[in-house]
Amino acid sequence: MLTESGQRAQRTTPAEIPTSFAPRPCRIGAFFLAIPAMQAGLAGYSDMAMRVVARRRGCPYAVTEALLDRVLLAGGRGREKGSVLCPEDHPVAGQLLGSHAHEMAAAARILLDCGFDVIDLNFACPVRKVMGRCRGGYLLGEPAEAIEMMQRVRDVVPGPLTMKLRRAVDESSAAADNFQRIFEKALELEFAAVAVHGRTVQQKYTGLADWTFLRKLKSRYPQATIFGSGDVFTAEDAMRMLMQTGVDGVWIARGAIGNPWIFRELSALIRGDALPPPPGILEQRQAILEHYALATALYGEDQASRHMRKMGIKYAKLHPQGAVVWREFIDVRSRMDWQGVLDRHYHQDGPGIRPPSVPDAQDMFRGCGLASEACP
Questions:
Q1: Of the residues 125, 134, 368, 375, which is catalytic?
Q2: Quick check: helix, strand or coil at residue 145?
Q3: pTM of the model as a whole
């Protein structure tokens, strides 16, 4: 299989994962991560509820979904305000999305005052409406604007500052040069870490992420803290990325939706242990109940019931009767509906199933804000 850039994709098989592998200690500023992985920011998903459920299952660090600077400046902290009131949800990065340097700097100050531990800049989002408003991945094609924004934010953020990039806007040499300018400016400004997705902005979420690019980037900048992103759907995928690219950590995005156990599984692989069995049905039930309770505390019961539908269909992928459970979660409208699905399908223990390493193209985006362009 070829990447969009025409390079042959190289992936090891599970049998090739060594029994002992010692990644370098991973840190973001003063924060040391127990395992070299994080729950990524995901539009419409990575709220406090999702983050806390993952932390209870081994996730050491998390990033919010993208927060629009102008919404923050207008006083609309919304559901993300709840994150800093939860002692379990630390360290946490508030991810910012915007198009004007002075507004991004002011919004960063707001997040710091709210108690976020790290500020993360999103220069990666490929969604059409974000690009059209000169935000996210658009900035990768405008290095002067991006660098001004980075400098202004750094002026008000004395602590850890990170960013999310894609490897370029497109496959042109000019786009590669723009990435290089922005990446090197991040090093000059002492960004604590840079997460790099192995696809271009133009690719969006199609094709295969170019892990060779990540390996070469880390080889050129061995002292930089670089997180790799793209095509990490299982703990084995995360382990392969660490081995093949040499990145300092893995930015786990879609692979963590409905599967908070991915962090526990990665921890086992790093220790050299066998991959743990997938969570059983009652263990899945417990996670879903926790997630629903946290979402209810954050949004209220009515909104939580609606919000959790898209989470339920992702949890269903680990259930042995996943297709049936998936359809029933779609119809959930209330707490009573939720309880009905749990009573019918999660009342008796049994083995769960493991999610595929590479979901089919349709299922990959089903119910996911990434496909529905849910970025602000």
A1: 125
A2: helix
A3: 0.88
Q: Which residue has the tokens 């629903």?
A: 292
Separation CA 144–CA 74 (nearest Å): 27
Report yes or no: 254 and 221 within 8 Å, Cβ to Cβ. no
Question: For this structure, is 86 an active site residue?
Answer: no
Task: Enumerate the β-bridge partners of residue 26.
Answer: 33
DSSP secondary structure letter of residue 274: P
Q: How far is CA 129 from the centre of its chain?
A: 20
In this structure, are strands 31-33 and 26-28 parallel, antiparallel, or unpaired? Answer: antiparallel
Query: Are 135 and 125 contacting, i.e. CB atoms less than 8 angstroms apart?
Result: yes
Rounded Cα distance between 367 and 362, Å, is 10
What is the β-pairing status of strands 193-197 and 226-229?
parallel
User: Which stretches of 88-208 are assigned E, i.e. beta strand?
Assistant: 92-97, 118-123, 161-166, 193-197
Residue for token digits 């660490």?
A: 242
End-to-end alpha carbon distance in the chain: 33
Residue 245 in contact with residue 218, Cβ under 8 Å? yes
CA dist 57 and 36 (Å) reads: 15
pLDDT tens per residue, range 88-111: 999 999 999 999 999 999 999 999
pLDDT single digits (tens) 304-349: 888 889 999 999 999 999 999 999 999 888 889 889 999 999 999 9
Number of H helices, E strands in the chain: 14, 11
DSSP codes, 275-316: PPPPP-HHHHHHHHHHHHHHHHHHH-HHHHHHHHHHHHHHHG
Q: What is the number of residues in the chain? A: 376
**16 CB burial (10 A radius; 0-12, 13-18, 19+):** exposed
DSSP 273: P
Domain 14-271, what architecture?
A: Alpha-Beta Barrel (3.20)
300 CB-contact burial (10 Å; exposed 0-12 / middle 13-18 / buried 19+) = exposed
